[in-house]
TrEMBL record:
<dbReference type="InterPro" id="IPR018376">
    <property type="entry name" value="Enoyl-CoA_hyd/isom_CS"/>
</dbReference>
<protein>
    <submittedName>
        <fullName>1,4-dihydroxy-2-naphthoyl-CoA synthase, peroxisomal-like isoform X2</fullName>
    </submittedName>
</protein>
<dbReference type="InterPro" id="IPR001753">
    <property type="entry name" value="Enoyl-CoA_hydra/iso"/>
</dbReference>
<dbReference type="InterPro" id="IPR029045">
    <property type="entry name" value="ClpP/crotonase-like_dom_sf"/>
</dbReference>
<keyword id="KW-0456">Lyase</keyword>
<dbReference type="InterPro" id="IPR010198">
    <property type="entry name" value="DHNA-CoA_synthase_MenB"/>
</dbReference>
<comment type="similarity">
    <text>Belongs to the enoyl-CoA hydratase/isomerase family.</text>
</comment>
<dbReference type="Pfam" id="PF00378">
    <property type="entry name" value="ECH_1"/>
</dbReference>
<dbReference type="InterPro" id="IPR014748">
    <property type="entry name" value="Enoyl-CoA_hydra_C"/>
</dbReference>
Length: 279
């Protein structure tokens, strides 16, 4: 992943970034205000890049509050799996067996307790289109192009690529996008609810950072629980587990929760009578 800067106004916001490289495929920039930018160096996802993305998602880094996922340059956000790496059992690099690692990546983005914003310029098609859909928000440039290519190349995404799309644009439109494999402009994508907003290309970074700043002003715990709650209906028992885990995390920090733990450690009966039974 490589961070690629665009407009001069936006570049001023990036100058204090601390940059870390993870080989030729990954370069992340972190800013003092809890903002992390991760940018795809290639428009095609290889198995190696998917593994790097999985490792790079900062679940345990308390200094990061919002993640921006984007592509290098302005021609493509991501155009999906590299068909030259495709084998009979998934996508494989030269010394690896085939796997559909992108499915694990999609789950990790959904379960990450921090917002992930897709900043899209150029093509977001195929697996790249699914990648932006599993992100929490999508900010698109006017030159962005969206669509699915699977049936053209003998492939499909019967998981999030179908279910989340149907949630976003409705069942009929989702069928149209998959069955006809058409491409759609940023304006068309906004009208069907596929993206949050569309801005001129030169304003893309500036607008995305503006959205991040607004999110970072709010309660991180509230954002965490809301993300889990909004995902729970689509993620089944796994979604409920994530939501329930967040509720437990909050309860552990309360006086009532600590009364039970302290009573156990002090070898005494817990006194929960002092806590109200709220209506």
């Amino acid at each position: 992943m490589i961070v690629q800067l665009g407009s001069q106004a936006a570049a001023l916001l990036w100058t204090t970034a601390t940059t870390k490289s993870m080989g030729k495929s990954l370069l992340m920039s972190q800013f003092g205000d809890s903002l992390l930018v991760m940018s795809l160096a290639r428009s095609l996802l290889t198995l190696f890049m998917k593994k790097l993305l999985e490792k790079a998602l900062p679940r345990d880094d308390g200094s990061v509050g919002v993640i921006i996922l984007t592509g290098k340059g302005t021609k493509a956000f991501c155009s999906g799996g590299d068909q030259s790496m495709r084998s009979k059992d998934g996508y494989a690099d030269k010394e690896s067996f085939g796997r559909l690692n992108v499915l694990d990546l999609q789950v990790q983005i959904r379960r990450l307790p921090k917002p992930v914003i897709a900043m899209v310029a150029g093509y977001a098609i195929g697996g790249g289109h699914v990648l932006h859909m599993v992100c929490d928000l999508t900010i698109a440039a006017e030159n962005a192009i969206f669509g699915q290519t699977g049936p053209k190349v003998g492939s499909f995404d019967a998981g999030y690529g179908s279910s989340i799309m149907s949630r976003l644009v409705g069942p009929k439109k989702a069928r149209e996008m998959w069955f006809l494999t058409r491409f759609y402009t940023a304006s068309e994508a906004e009208k069907m609810g596929l993206v949050n907003t569309v801005v001129p290309l030169e304003k893309l970074e500036e607008e995305t950072v503006k959205w991040c700043r607004e999110i970072l002003r709010n309660s991180p715990t509230a954002i965490r629980v809301l993300k889990a709650a909004l995902n729970a209906v689509d993620d089944g028992h796994a979604g409920l587990q994530e939501l329930g885990g967040n509720a437990t995390l909050i309860f552990y920090g309360t006086e009532e929760g600590n009364e039970g733990k302290n009573a156990y450690l002090q070898h005494r009966p817990p006194n929960f009578s002092k806590f109200p039974r709220l209506p």
